[in-house]
Amino acid sequence: MALHAPPKLEKYADVPYEEKERLFQEVKSDPRFPDYLYGCYECGICVAACPSARFYDFSPRKIAQTLAREDVELFYYQLNEDVWNCSQCFSCNRCPRGNSPGGLITIMREVAVRHGLRSAKEALEGYSRVIYKIMLTGTQVSPDMIQADAFPDWGPVAKETAEKLELWRKAIPPETMHTTSTAWEVSDQTLAELYLIWYMTGVLDMIREVDEGLHMILTDVMEEFLEEKGLAVAS
Amino acid sequence: MDTDRTTGERVFRRDPDLPTPEDIRERVLALEEAGEWIVQRVPQPYREVPTKYGWPKKVPLQHTWHHKSCGQCGHIPGYSTAIFWLHRKLGLDYDDPRDQTSCTGWNYYASATSNAAAQAAVAARNFAAAYATGYFPLIHCGTSYGHYKEVREELVKHGELRRQVREILAKLGKPLVMPEEIVHYSEWVYAVREEIAARRVYDCSEVVVTVHPACHYYKLVQGDAIYDPDIYGGQRTAVVTAVAKALGAQVRDYSTWFDCCGFGFRHILVQRDFTRSFAVSRKIETMIEEAKPDVVLTHDTGCVTTLDKSQFAAQVHKKKVGVPVMSEAQFAALAMGAHPYRVCQLHWHAADYRPLLEKMGIDWRERWREFEEDLERIQRGEKEYLTWEDVDAEVPARHFLPVS
Amino acid sequence: MPSDVVLVIGGGPAGLEAARGVADLGARVVLVEERDRLGGTPVFEQYAALTHGFQDAEEVMDRMVQAVVGHPGVEVRLRSKVVSCEGQVGSFRVGVQRLEDGAPATVEAGAIIVATGFQHFDPGRETQVYGYYEYPDVITLADAEAMLKAKRFVRPSTGLPPERVCFIQCVGSRDRQIGNEYCSKVCCGIASKQAIEIRQQVPQCKVYIFYIDMRMYGYWENEIYWPAQEQYKVNYIKGIATEIIRKGDKLLVRGEDTTLGRPLEVPMDVVILSVGMEPSKGTREVAKVLGLKQNKYGFIEVPHEGVDPVATSVPGIFVAGAAAGPKDLDDTLSMAGAAAMKAVAALRRAAVAGAAG
After folding, report:
1. Which residues 33-72 in chain A show a CB within 8 A of chain C?
2. Residues 6+ apart with CB under 8 A from B66
């Protein structure tokens, strides 16, 4: 494997330092941050365990090191270039200091999303239908997501599944699983509770930053649904 | 450390005097005493199983509220069905709720379009829903399990987060509840593996198995995972392997056992070259080269999806692929005589499972003919759905003995 | 009635040096040892060469044992254990039990020196997945030491000399998850020493050391680290391994070569785990019997270590060696001398106070 090239920090030279510093402080002040970063031995056990490190020019060690050293320029670079390569497997939780590079990346991603960074929007392109499903239906993955054109590399089973979906779903014994647009049957009351959670925790605001169109659809559907149930969006 | 007298091999014996890491369950109970939340206790009957640091863990046998998995119910319906079927055959009652949302962990890990409060509130809402029924949550997905362990840690450590979640739940008319244990269904399978083995109908002694343990099961918050001195000498997690061995199958090792499957959350949807490359090169090819398995068994939704679905495209590049992948629940069900299509729903799987069925002595042609008849009856409008009654009637009555 | 006896608990290097020191100062010693012979860990685990100057461990320990056994001021009680303690400095009454038959005895002592030592971290515990209990070719520093002493360093699975051997440092030390947060101090020196010995005994074998930091204090730097690299071509790689698993007939070590910035996966014939120190069972038991404060790791707590390295929480009871925490041999012998001096001083003070009424 080739030696890693040094990061081209010039790419973000036109972003004001104060902006980078602000985002860094936002990561650092997350309540979870002290649980995820103690000190760093720079020992590389996280890289040794990491699947993404074998495929991408990606290093959980460098993420932890950068945050430990408070290197704001390098942090901003990683926030845009590296954090979406992580596969969130948490093999890096092997760390003898008790750090969680995967956890640090989770916080960094949330900050990127909250601020609508272009790199976050690009990373989430093609992903909006999953957000749609999870926000609105209460299950993330549904049978009708298996379309042959979406999963050509899965082989003929994707095509066959899509063609026979309605019929095949009826031939599954558990009563809750005869659905096609959701993974299982979710009650209306449950959905209403879920929508209220998204509102009350600010998740919808996060979505607006990365996909305004999606946000509009979600709020329309949710507000109508809640109105029907006689529930208001409590603040 | 001791030496086994017969084999001369080293035997690990845990010294009870040496300190272990903090057991978070103690803090969970302490918070109940302080009035911070209600702790739902594991109901009887339960079994105690050994875990990583030697602490006993309670696994409920029945009265369980099944926290289902999106990916299983959505794309691998035989996985969920097999879990339910095993309960039914062992005479253990369960609840399959409609008042359940996804853990939303996949979205969280893939897109970060969520935050700690939302994730904790979703978890707490599901726990409260279970509590209201009196049935104890049993988690189907490895990522849900790992994610809920994370959420538990965050709620224990951060009073402000607890307060925020408590307020949200109060608006929903629900109390803040934390289960006494966070239990994965594969831990239930481990706990009843002898009962499963006693009901085995097909011979598994010729079946070669490789096991893939899920990262989120044993790497993410490590203390809850089952480690058994009789399996891998207590040095690797025991779930999946234990039931495969109990069924008499040959479990073979391979040199990338500890590697992630490569699922990647966001990657499986929008950057599948990573997932496919990793799953095939690091896991499937290595398993085939070193162990020549008849089946790959695992215990998580994402892992089954990744390892099963990544093999097709790799054939174009002449990669050594073509081993069926399924959950240990589906394999156990097959061994107990479950219908490969009505129960295990193998027609949803990509890699060819028919050689495995033939090796076990299961007549898949006949079974598929039966299933096609079911499908025709449904199409003709003679029946609306395939039901549990259709399926329960199959296996001979002697296997209905309830487990105590 | 103040006693003129110092009780030394433990017959390893610390206990032997302390006992001889006390006796040389003219006081009487009762030396209690649980095992059936003196010498402690270096003898029990068959150390080959000592890290300091590569002296032959057996010869050094023989000399130390003879100095005590032949000494008229020292009474040695083997196969014996301390089971109770009352009193205070000047007049402790200690119950000592003979292990064969449980025969009790009481030793009256004016001062006590605890020299009960350490045990190695058991690599089957907690986060360690290095396969010590799965593969005979994964061994510890102690296993390696015994083979080097016998001049038969081989792959345990084949009995043949290995071609590739590696050390993994910090096993069971410096780890927040396991709880042994401290550095065990001696493993970098020992591993480098053993690496040199392996290269001497098996010249065709390549040797690697995977480390987080190389702790080469003082003269270890030029006496051990430099020769290991320069003369013996030992490969030091900064990057610590995750799991060990078998591939074919080799063991696969997965790590990151951090200075070159790439993951590495290398096959080895033998993997040596540099296991750290923990308080021995004897140390933990004696601490409780004598009422000594232990630190959070279970070692005997030394209240002001930098200033008074041998004091414990109980006046008149002193500690020497690894019972107080990770120590190397010269720490241990220095502490033993200091403890001997302070123990005899305590006796003398108590005698004077007693005479004064």
Report:
1. 38, 41-45, 47-50, 53-54, 59, 61
2. B83, B84, B94, B95, B96, B97, B138, B140, B185
